[in-house]
Design goal:
By secondary structure, the chain is of the alpha/beta class. Helix content is 32%, strand content 18%. It folds into two domains: 150 residues, no CATH class; 73 residues, no CATH class. Helix 1 packs parallel to helix 2, helix 3 crosses helix 4 and helix 3 crosses helix 5.
Length: 269
């Protein structure tokens, strides 16, 4: 069995529950956004890394991993060039990360140390960059995964959108981690039945044309959505004490194509 997993954003408890409630030989494809917002980012990253080391987890990059890498790159340039322009770039990148939920990661790793000697509040964060554990994880994440040999055809997994031409983006990589469903429907690679995505929190698993979206906002809702890449079955793993799915946004028609609510089952963990 190979399951695709939607965004967890530091909810290691849901990931642990999922692993404990699936067969020991289950393989996983993580659709990105392991970090930010939640309060167990370390545990989430370490469990994902452990499963990847065991050959049971394929890791994909989300926009939150991309934001984190940009912060590290900006501080690296600042360290090398040490001028006001690079200082400002680094400051803006850090503020953007914090605005997107990175404050929880920074606090979990010990806070931010501005004194350059690594002797302040943290030996992990500061003008020299981010903790190696975070950067190693983010750089390990691929952009795409193609599941071949499904019962009805191949499935293309990517955080936000398959690589395609969209206005307003600097690169295909940005499109793959940042594009939103309303910018579609997205074309899929030749021979692919449909593409599978996280990234945009929605009320229930939804298909628009050949694009399927399964991010149910696990950080807020406690409902982690998975998609069986072999059988095409969708299972929502509901965290302990969580209530039925909270009201979230539903996807609207795109390019004249109406969204289709997909069937799923719920497993309490």
């Amino acid at each position: 069995m190979k399951l695709a997993i939607a965004d967890i954003h530091g909810r290691a408890d849901l990931l642990e529950g999922l692993v404990a409630n699936t067969p020991a030989d289950t393989e996983f494809v993580f659709l990105g956004d392991a970090v930010d917002r939640g309060h167990r980012n370390k545990d989430a990253i370490r469990l994902l890394t452990k499963l990847a080391d065991e050959g049971r987890m394929t890791l994909l990059r989300g926009n939150h991993e991309a934001i984190m890498l940009e912060v590290d790159e900006c501080y690296d340039r600042f360290q090398r060039e040490n001028n006001d322009l690079r200082r400002n770039d680094a400051k803006l990148s850090l503020e953007n990360w914090i605005k997107n939920g990175g404050d929880t990661v920074i606090l979990e790793y010990g806070g931010w140390d501005d004194d350059f000697d690594k002797g302040g509040a943290s030996d992990a964060f500061g003008p020299w960059g981010l903790p190696p554990e975070l950067i190693t994880f983010a750089k390990r994440c691929e952009f795409t995964y193609r599941h071949e040999g499904g019962i009805r055809g191949d499935i293309f997994c990517v955080h936000a959108a398959p690589p395609c031409q969209l206005k307003g983006y600097r690169s295909l990589e940005d499109i793959m981690v940042w594009a939103r469903p309303e910018e579609g429907p997205f074309p899929v690679p030749e021979g692919v039945l449909f593409s599978l995505h996280g990234h945009t929190p929605i009320a229930f698993p939804t298909r628009i044309g050949q694009n399927v979206f399964i991010d149910l906002g696990a950080y807020w809702t406690g409902h982690l959505c998975t998609f069986d890449l072999d059988t095409l079955e969708i299972t929502i793993f509901q965290g302990e004490g969580e209530q039925p799915l909270v009201e979230m946004d539903t996807l609207q028609a795109v390019g004249g194509i109406e969204p289709v609510k997909l069937e799923y089952k719920v497993v309490k963990i």
